[in-house]
Every structure is written in C-alpha cells, then in structure tokens.
Amino acid sequence: GVPMCANSKYLNQTLRDQWHFQGYVTSDCDAVGDISTAYPAGHGYANSSASAAYALKAGTDMDCGDWGRHAYTKDLPTALANGLVTQVDLDIALARLTARQMELGLFDPKGEQPWFNLGVESIRRPEHTGLALEAARQSITLLKNSGGTLPVSGGRRIAVVGPHYNGTEVFVSSYHGSSCLNASGGISPDGGFGCLVTPLKAISSANLGGQTIGALGCEVDSSLDLIDEAVAAGKVRKPGSVGN
C-alpha cells in the first residue's frame, strides 16, 4: 500500500477536496523518513528524495521530528534539484503552515499571546477532562456484548486482562505533560499520573458488591504468554464475593 504521509487520495482528495480542510498536515515524527527506510523498520516504498517528494506533493506540509531521518531537511533539496518537486509545491506547504501560525498569533510579542500565559491552574480543569471523556465515549465502538455484560451493573465476577490493566500514563499517549499536581502546584511524587484512574480501578468501582481482579495476560512488546494464568485467576472466587 501507499504510506499515509505519501497518500494523496486521503490527504489531498479526501481531507482537502472533499472535507474542505483548511489547515496544515504534519507527519508523525520521522514518518516521512520511514517511507524510504527499508522494511520492516520502515516501508521501503521509494528512495529518500522520491519519498520526500511523494509526501510533500501528497499534502504532508511538515515533517515532524528533531531526530531520525530529518527527511524534508535532508532530502527535499535533492528532490527540488532533480525536478521531483517545484518551488510552488514548497510554497504551498509553507503558506499553509505560516497562515495557521499567524492566526494563532505566534509572530506577535509573547506577552500578547494567550497560549504563553497559561499556568498550572489550566491543567485538568473540569471542562478539559469533560471534553476528553466525551471524545473517548464517542470514539468507542462496541462490537459484542454477550449476555448483556455491559453496562456493568455490579455484583459480578470480572477479570480485567491485558498489559495495561493497571496503567495510567500509557493512556495519554506519548505527547503530554504531567497530569497530576501536588498542593503547591508542582508535579506529584508519582511522576504526575497518580490521579489518573486505571481500567482496573474504574471497573472495580462500577462492579459494586462484586469481585474484580486484574491480570497481565501478555505484554505489548514480547512473546510472554500468561493468558492461562489470567483465565485461572478470573475463575477464583474470593471469600465473601458475589456474582456469576
């Protein structure tokens, strides 16, 4: 297939022509470089200068990353010299990016820019966490609900199985600051994520009067297989627990 950063069908034809998107498109960090990087580390789709040209002409205006291939910085000059892109192609991408920066006031004095005047009091405000919760709810698709398991009504035996069953930071991805502050406004001793609710804790809270256990089951980046142990743990009834 065509790597997404080089996919004009989705970036130009769909995003811009059909959906009338007026902003700029940036790659994931080093994703443009991955177009030329040999498989399996990358796509091995084309050589480096052609890959940068494909991405730019497909509608990827900016190549994210201050590490890795630095594809646009290193490869677009060659692509331009070889006629794979034109100065017009470069100007279009620059105009899209610069227009958004100007709209945000990023060329104005910092004191006049609202985004540079946000303090710690803006972290985890109710309106922000509420919006994030609503976005999460609307992004979830329930594929199967055997026996009416959901919504959790309490009094059940539930096993929460998976590598992130007790995770916190992993659910805010890798582009974030610290979410939880201490009373003085500094980062909490747990690294700033102790206030986030884990899946195990959330399901346990919903399963009032029931038994909820957590188990690893497997890991994301290894062949560790603890599924049998997780299933066995889920079948053990704790003294005083209720449920099916």
Please sum up the structure shown:
The chain is mainly α. Helix content is 36%, strand content 4%. α7 links the parallel β1 and β2.
How are the secondary structure elements laid out?
Layout: H1 8-18, H2 31-36, H3 48-58, H4 71-81, H5 87-103, H6 126-139, E1 157-161, H7 199-206, E2 211-215, H8 227-235
Parallel strand pairs: 1-2
Helix pairs in contact: 3-4
Defining traits:
mainly alpha; two-stranded parallel sheet; 2 strands; 244 residues; single chain
Question: Please, could you describe this protein's structure?
Answer:
By secondary structure, this protein is mostly helical. It is built from 8 helices and 2 strands; from the N terminus they run ααααααβαβα. A two-stranded parallel sheet has the order 1-2. Helix 7 (199-206) links the parallel strand 1 (157-161) and strand 2. Helix 3 crosses helix 4 (71-81). The longest helix has 17 residues, at 87-103. Mean pLDDT is 87; it is low at 239-244.
**Unreliable residue stretches:** 239-244
Please state roughly what percent of the residues sit in beta strands, choosing from under 5%, 5-15%, 15-25%, 25-35%, 35-45% or over 45%: under 5%
Between the first and last Cα atoms, what is the distance in angstroms? 47 Å
Overall SS class: mainly alpha
**Overall pLDDT score:** 87
Helix content: 25-40%
